[in-house]
Write a structure and sequence with these properties.
CATH architecture of the largest domain in chain A: 3-Layer(aba) Sandwich
Distance between the termini of chain A: 48 Å
Largest sheet of chain A: 6 strands, mixed
Shape of chain A: globular
Oligomer: heterotrimer
CATH superfamily of the largest domain in chain A: P-loop containing nucleotide triphosphate hydrolases
Largest sheet of chain B: 10 strands, mixed
Distance between the termini of chain B: 31 Å
Chains: A alpha/beta (249), B alpha+beta (764), C mainly alpha (193)
Order of helices and strands of chain A: HEEEHEEHEHHHEHEHEEHH
Number of domains of chain B: 4
Radius of gyration of chain A: 19 Å
Helix content of chain A: 25-40%
Number of strands of chain B: 20
Largest interface: A-B, 51 and 39 residues
Number of strands of chain A: 10
Strand content of chain B: 15-25%
Chain lengths: 249, 764, 193
């Protein structure tokens, strides 16, 4: 078991989050266990209100769990102060939100470079990293634009670049294709797949099953608890084209 | 129409803070301006009110006793009426441990028709109270004597001594305010005067002349002096002199207050522009929605302007009420200003209120137009422009400078126009505060170093009933005395002038009184003299020129070798060595000693000691530092600084709110990128503080540069001449700057104190 | 390639028409087995139960169709019938589930739904799960979801390697339908679990 946990990038046990205020008690996450080995791509699906986003925010240190443990790379992190979490996020975690991913008073390029700089890169390194990421995303032309001039899909792609600028060990994404059309979604998916292929561990929350199915594992969350944990290799078999037509019948 | 009213009401309720800020700024400015105007009125025109109320005399003559004046009205054309003659004599009054020289003037129980003193407290002289006296009001104020007090009157020779009771206080328009005009004036019954000074030869006759054409005063004076003979005429004073003397503070305060008033208005306009356009930016989406509901751009503009009109009117009314309430409180403390004369004429009041209201509404013009232009689909709120991380910023980040400082400082300047407006809106109040502090420190300096304005001596000692050698010996042997100078006060007639001027022989040419010479040099030889700017101006002279004047018939020619600053005698002083007069054979009447005390010695203590040592036969008076009378300026400055701070704060808060709103959207990302919550909050605080810092630096440096020049310009107008300006003390300015920065930082924290959202807000 | 696809499409259409169990109505075999799993019943009882459960969602088949299906089931050995003598009425035929029938029922439930009427098939399983004694609705849903996810993965992989436009569009269509099915699965989970 000990050896097992050291191979794990992320391990969470009994994560619970209950919101209470004004006499209303809202249990958002109820006793979730999670294991993410190094380099694995995990998708979390579930209806809205199932606690997906809350779970993700807890794993990124943006929300403090009511109870439970979180171990990141063998280090216990759930009780860390905000300051320590901030340092963790600078170097080890990349976070993509559904909205408001970019600092509004900075250009696209600077957003990405800022993240790199905070991660400890030098100016030159930050610049190189930015150029590399934006090129991969086909956004090199928009490097000098203000974030508000970009479409939603472009913004989300830049957000991904921003989140990966500091070469994090774990990429957390909350509905990265939530507001996107299918073309932008494909682009995002492609980027995620490439990152995954390079060994990036990804944990994302989505209700887009296309994205979910691209993961190594799909965890179904319902009403704050895990109801299913599907390793995709098990259920997936290659399908030839004729079968497609049979599907549609 | 109803819809607009509904929206206005809801909006006022929703953003009460901002509404209060706008109304508060307007109210503050109106109050400050009205108070200034009242003060101006009180100091500009006390003479006018008094003169009219007392049916004053245009010319007052101090004549030798028993000079016949009856025929003046028939022999000199233009004289309407004659007041007096009133016998008058010098005396000393004792009150507590104060000994003061006074002039006793005998008048009847029946108040005269011309030059009638206006009783403000108590009663006029009555036959039933033989030992009752009436004090002139500014004198009474300075002595802290009120109706009902007991005083001791003593003749100059100390031969007679009487206990008297103050039965009343009265104002008069026939002489200037004490202590500019010395000695103090006490009205007594003729019988009492004779008790003090039975010898008629030692009394003067005071006669007042009311003439038909005030403009022809000079002509009449010439004729009267000719008629009566110059040997009979002691001193002549005209209504213009009295008016000017009473209004002596006019240029200083008037200019000061007018200047501050104008700039307050400007700063207020800026503050309101800041607040309003900030609000338009913040409520962009809401205003856009109004358009969607069907309001036309014109209607949106109207609504915004109407809302502000309501706030402005409210502010003006509050300002008016506050000024009414504060005027008696503040102005009651000013010596020489009676709150009754300090009523702002309704024309001025309306002008002030109207100008402020107009300025406030003008300030909303551009923001209102901006609001009208907001597009209906303003779901995309007004974003800050996305700019490059400057090389400076990214180097700083790479150099591991605290990200809060880099990002905060950067964010401050992202919205160029807004940053500029905020900086200007803060720099102007800081500029004015610095100038105000400059005035303050000048006043403080004058108070602490009277030598700089020619008041090196703290005491004036007249021999009184002590023989001169004895007096000298006392002064010589007193350890508290550093030096003493024999002085004379001599009236001189200058050709072309209608009145006599009082000149001073101070020390000898070999050992002159230590005047503070700002131009040229002090007199070293007989017939050399120094003069103040005011005197030079009134005689039309410059340093280096010659002037001839007559001392009791003896002509003396002076060479003006230097310019000094001296506030006595309305700032018109000519000083020379006493040996000049002796050489020329001119009469050298009243002699006294100007005593310079050792540093650190309290004038009051030294005066008391000398008095005791001489068994109260020496006449010791403390020299009055006019700066001490300007306490009102401190009050005025303090309140102006308060108003300016309010105005500056309004700009600061708006900048902070706008920054916060821009900042809100970035909170999630910043936290995700690894800024701690403290750093995130600090970013906002740094943003506001950086703007304030720039504004403070600009305002303070400009203020320091301008302050000294301004004070010099004002004091030149005043007649003191250039040279007394002092820059604001570094310590005070430093404290003000630090306070302003602290206020900025605090303003930065206010919106940020709302709980940091732990998760990014979902959805626009 | 293009011609092959066209041919395939044409020959699928008639297949679709034959897919159902004949005439209007839904596939009744499994629902009837499920109902009989609870307790034996005769035709009219079965009809009224079907009406109760599905009446608002689907038009109820007539009694004749029910008897036809029951006879076919008996022929296949999944049910057996018995005549019950009634004193005042004509005899009624009571049907009950055989062992083979129970097995067929269970294997139907365990099997992930496929084919053109997949929704109906799965939905019926879900609805009837309580009566059939297998009340693991969540497991049912999970299994179906896993199946869909697998298909989704396959489709996306296929789309990635397909270069021509028409087949890609076809795949896209299938993906979108799959997404819809998954979403519906989620709704079922929310409502029925």
């Amino acid at each position: 078991m000990i050896g097992d946990s050291q191979r794990l990038l992320l391990r969470a046990t009994g994560l619970t989050k209950t919101f209470s205020g004004d006499g209303v008690v809202l249990p958002a996450v109820r006793g979730v266990d999670l294991r993410v080995p190094q380099g694995e791509f995990v998708a979390i699906t579930g209806p809205s209100g199932s606690g997906k986003s809350t779970l993700l925010h807890m794993l990124g240190g943006l929300e403090r769990p009511t109870s439970g443990e979180i171990w990141l790379d063998g280090q216990r992190v759930d009780g860390l102060s905000q300051a320590r979490w901030a340092v963790l996020r600078r170097r080890h975690i990349g976070f993509v939100f559904q909205f408001f991913n970019l600092v509004s008073n900075m250009t696209v390029a600077d957003n990405v470079e800022l993240a790199a700089l905070m991660g400890g890169a030098t100016r030159r390194q930050a610049q190189a990293r930015r150029q590399e990421l934006l090129a991969e995303l086909d956004l090199a032309a928009k490097a000098d634009a203000a974030p508000t001039r970009l479409s939603g899909g472009e913004q989300q792609r830049v957000a991904l670049a921003r989140a990966m600028a500091n070469k994090p060990s774990l990429l957390l994404a909350d509905e990265p294709t939530g507001n996107l059309d299918s073309a932008s979604s494909s682009a995002v998916l492609r980027l995620l797949a490439n990152a995954h292929a390079s060994g990036q561990a990804i944990l994302l929350v989505t209700h887009d099953s296309r994205v979910a199915s691209a993961a190594d594992r799909v965890i179904s969350l319902f009403d704050g608890t895990v109801v299913d944990d599907v390793p995709m290799s098990v259920v997936h078999t290659p399908m030839p084209l004729p079968d497609v037509l049979r599907l549609r019948g | 129409m109803r819809a607009m009213a509904r929206w206005i009401r809801a909006d006022l309720r929703a953003s009460a803070g901002r509404a209060l800020a706008v109304a508060g700024v307007v109210a503050g400015v109106v109050t400050a301006l009205l108070l200034s105007a009242a003060l101006l009125q009180g100091t500009t025109n006390p003479w006018q009110g008094l003169f009219t109320a007392s049916r004053g005399a245009h010319i007052w003559l101090h004549l030798a006793p028993s000079t016949p004046v009856r025929q003046l009205s028939s022999e000199v054309p233009g004289i309407d009426a004659i007041a007096g003659p009133y016998p008058a004599t010098a005396a000393t009054v004792l009150h507590g441990d104060q000994r003061t020289r006074v002039e006793l003037r005998a008048m009847n129980t029946q108040l005269p028709a011309i030059g009638k003193p206006i009783v403000t407290s108590g009663r006029w002289l009555t036959g039933s109270q033989v030992h009752g006296v009436v004090l002139e009001s500014t004198f009474a104020q300075a002595m802290h004597v009120s109706e009902g007090d007991m005083l001791v009157l003593q003749s100059v020779e100390e031969t007679a001594r009487l206990r008297v009771r103050v039965t009343g206080i009265a104002e008069t328009s026939d002489q200037g305010f004490y202590p500019d005009q010395t000695p103090g004036l006490i009205w007594v019954l003729p019988g009492l005067l004779r008790q003090i000074e039975p010898i008629v030869g030692r009394t003067e006759e005071i006669v007042g002349l009311r003439i038909a054409e005030p403009a022809a005063t000079d002509v009449v004076v010439q004729q009267v002096v000719t008629q009566l003979g110059s040997s009979a005429v002691g001193t002549v004073s005209t209504w213009q002199q009295v008016k000017q003397s009473m209004a002596r503070r006019d240029p200083l305060l008037g200019l000061l207050l007018a200047l501050f008033g104008l700039m307050s208005l400007g700063a207020a306009v800026l503050a309101i522009v800041n607040v309003t356009s900030g609000r338009v930016l913040i409520q962009n989406a809401e205003l856009g929605m109004l358009k969607t509901l069907g309001f036309t751009p014109g209607q949106v503009m109207t609504m915004l302007t109407a809302e502000h009109a309501i706030l402005t009117v409210g502010g003006v009314v509050v300002g008016l009420i506050a000024a009414r309430l504060l005027t008696p409180v503040l102005l009651g403390r000013v010596p020489g200003v009676s709150p009754a004369t300090a009523i702002v004429p309704s024309g001025w009041a309306l002008l002030i209120m109207g100008a402020t209201a107009a300025a406030a509404l003008l300030a909303t013009a551009v923001p209102a137009w901006q609001a009208g232009r907001v597009r209906p689909i303003a779901a995309v709120r007004a974003h800050p422009p996305g700019r490059h991380l400057s090389r400076l910023a990214s180097t700083a980040m790479a150099a591991r400078m605290p990200p809060a400082i880099v990002l905060g400082a950067r964010a401050a300047f992202v919205r160029r126009l807004s940053a500029a407006l905020t900086i200007v809106g803060l720099a102007i109040p800081m500029l004015m505060i610095t100038i105000g502090l400059g005035f303050w420190s000048t006043l403080d300096d004058v108070q602490r170093n009277p030598a700089d304005i020619g008041l090196a001596a703290s005491l004036t000692v007249a021999p009184g009933s002590l023989p001169l050698p004895q007096a000298q010996r006392l002064l010589r042997t007193d350890p508290q005395v550093q030096a003493y100078y024999g002085c004379v006060r001599a009236s001189a007639l200058v050709p072309g002038q209608t009145t006599t001027i009082t000149t001073l022989g101070m020390g000898t040419s070999a050992r002159p009184y230590p005047f503070h010479v700002v131009e040229g040099r002090l007199y070293h030889a007989p017939e050399q003299a120094v003069a103040t700017q005011a005197l030079l101006d009134s005689l039309g002279l410059n340093v280096g020129q010659f002037v001839r004047m007559w001392f009791g018939g003896v002509p003396v020619t002076f060479h003006i070798v230097g310019r000094i600053i001296d506030p006595q005698y309305d700032g018109e002083v000519l000083a020379y060595g006493t040996d000049t007069l002796a050489d020329e054979g001119a009469p050298a009447p009243v002699g006294f000693f100007s005593v310079v005390l050792r540093p650190g010695v309290s004038p009051q203590a030294a005066a008391a000691k000398l008095s005791r040592a001489s068994a109260a036969r020496l006449d010791v008076e403390q020299v009055v530092n006019p700066a001490n009378q300007l306490g009102i300026v401190h009050v005025a400055l303090a309140s102006l600084i308060a108003v300016l701070s309010l105005i500056g704060l309004a700009s600061l808060l708006t900048a902070s709110l706008l920054g916060h709103r821009d900042h809100q959207r970035d909170l999630g990302v910043l936290r995700a990128m690894g800024l701690t919550p403290v750093q995130v909050r600090a970013t906002l605080i740094v943003r506001t503080t950086v703007l304030a810092l720039v504004a403070i630096v600009i305002g303070v440096s400009l203020g320091r540069m301008v302050s000294t020049t301004l004070v010099s310009a004002v004091s030149q107008l005043y007649g003191l001449g250039a040279g007394i300006g002092r820059p604001p003390a570094l310590g005070t300015i430093g404290t003000a700057a630090v306070l302003a920065l602290a206020a900025a930082a605090l303003a930065g924290t206010l919106p940020a104190r709302t709980a940091l959202p732990a998760v990014a807000v979902l959805g626009p | 390639m293009h011609g092959y696809v066209t041919m395939k499409i044409r020959c699928c259409w008639p297949a679709r028409q034959q897919a159902s169990t004949g005439g209007r109505g839904y596939a009744m075999r499994m629902p009837l087995l499920a109902l009989l799993a609870k307790e034996p019943a005769h035709g009219y009882e079965l009809k009224s139960q079907l009406e109760q459960i599905f009446g608002e969602a689907y038009p109820t088949p007539n009694i004749g169709q029910i008897y036809v299906t029951l006879q076919r089931l008996e022929r296949d050995g999944l049910v057996q019938s018995q005549d019950v003598v009634q004193a005042t009425r004509p005899n009624k035929r009571v049907y009950e589930l055989t062992g083979a029938g129970r097995e067929a029922l269970l294997s139907w439930i365990d099997r992930t739904s496929e084919g053109p009427r997949v929704r109906d098939d799965f939905f019926m399983k879900l609805v009837l799960s309580q009566m059939s004694g297998t009340s693991d609705r969540l497991g049912l849903i999970n299994r179906q979801r896993r199946h869909y996810l697998g298909q989704m993965r396959s489709l996306t992989d296929l789309a990635a390697v397909t270069s021509s436009q028409i087949p890609r569009l076809l795949i896209e269509g299938a993906i979108l339908h799959l997404q819809a099915d998954l979403d519906w699965l989620q709704r079922c989970q929310e409502e029925l679990v």
